Amino acid sequence: MKAEIITSNFDLPEEIALLSKQINGKLLHVACPALTGDSMSMKLLLSAFDTHQAASFINRVNLKKETGCFHPRLSMSIYPVMQKGLNAEEMIEKIVNDLFTANEDFLKTETLLVISEPEAGYNQDVFLKCLNEMLERPAISFIHLKNVLYKAIS
Q: Which domains does the chain have, with CATH numbers?
């Protein structure tokens, strides 16, 4: 299995609504960077939480520097933005590991969609490389996961 790159954009309201429906119905595991404002994580979290709760979750993930999973309410995870003084590749490897673990142990979806936004501060090529390295590890068997999609929003 190899991560597939998505080139379409998710800015249309109907596409955001479809992703929201899929994460509320636990049909797709979506992972976004923990960003406030007009970010994908805020748009999707607002399908289940109010603005204050969504912003609080995002702030907590960035303070703890750990991926947050919304199981059982949503099949969605948010991961911390890059912070000064941290090794970017190590951070991405930890995030990818957390996402795969959350999917296999809790969410159990067949598809993981990882969304990246430039404001998160991660190198898109390194993120994709880490996703593919995880998928190529021979010791790892995925019971639920069948597809990994990667979308870099510009």
A: 4-152 (3.40.220)
**Separation of alpha carbons 133 and 2, rounded Å:** 9
Q: Which of 141, 142, 116 is nearest to 130 (CA)?
A: 116
How many other CB atoms sit within 10 Å of the CB of residue 153? 18
**pLDDT of amino acid 152:** 86
d(CA 111, CA 122) in angstroms, rounded, equals 22
Q: Tens digit of pLDDT for each residue in 92-101?
A: 999 999 999 9
Please, are residues 115 and 78 in contact by the beta-carbon 8 Å criterion? no
The edge-to-edge listing of strands for the beta sheet with 111-116 is: 4-5, 147-152, 111-116, 29-33, 76-79, 68-69
Sequence-separated contacts (24+) of 8-14 with Cβ below 8 Å: 8/151, 9/153, 10/40, 10/115, 10/151, 10/153
Which segments of 30-142 does DSSP mark as H helices, in order? 40-45, 51-64, 88-102, 124-136
